[in-house]
């Protein structure tokens, strides 16, 4: 689980075109902490991960592991409907409604 989170943070840092040193400075961490966290050489504190996420415009949320597959499907569907049976179209999401109004 932590490895997935660290991978997501690393990918977000790279997508934001930040160096490890820039992320560290903005998060109030040492460059070595960011480097060792991303490299898997450090078991980071929760506060370290939340500061890295904050700088990258992300939030860390805790989700019961039994709901993770449904949550991933919900996100991949564009937030249309949680628990929708396969092969059935989901109703329009709030986002779809706002797009049509805009």
CATH superfamily of the largest domain: lambda repressor-like DNA-binding domains
- Our estimate of the beta-strand percent is under 5%
Order of helices and strands: HHHHHH
Give the overall form: globular
The helix content, as a percent range, equals 55-70%
Structural class determined from secondary elements:
mainly alpha
The top-level CATH class of the largest domain is Mainly Alpha
Poorly predicted regions? none
CATH-scheme architecture of the largest domain: Orthogonal Bundle
Distance from first to last alpha carbon: 38 Å
Radius of gyration: 17 Å
Biggest sheet details: none
CATH topology of the largest domain: 434 Repressor (Amino-terminal Domain)
The pLDDT mean sits at 83
| H/I helix tally | 6
* DSSP summary, beta strand count: 0
Number of structural domains = 2
């Amino acid at each position: 689980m932590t490895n997935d989170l660290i991978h997501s943070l690393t990918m977000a840092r790279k997508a934001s075109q930040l160096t490890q040193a820039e992320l560290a400075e903005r998060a109030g961490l040492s460059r070595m902490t960011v480097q060792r966290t991303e490299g898997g050489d450090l078991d980071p504190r929760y506060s370290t991960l939340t500061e890295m996420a904050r700088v990258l415009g992300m939030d860390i949320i805790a989700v019961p592991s039994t709901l993770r597959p449904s949550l991933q499907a919900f996100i991949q569907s564009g937030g249309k409907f949680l628990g929708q049976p396969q092969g059935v179209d989901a109703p329009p999401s709030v986002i779809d409604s706002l797009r049509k109004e805009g």
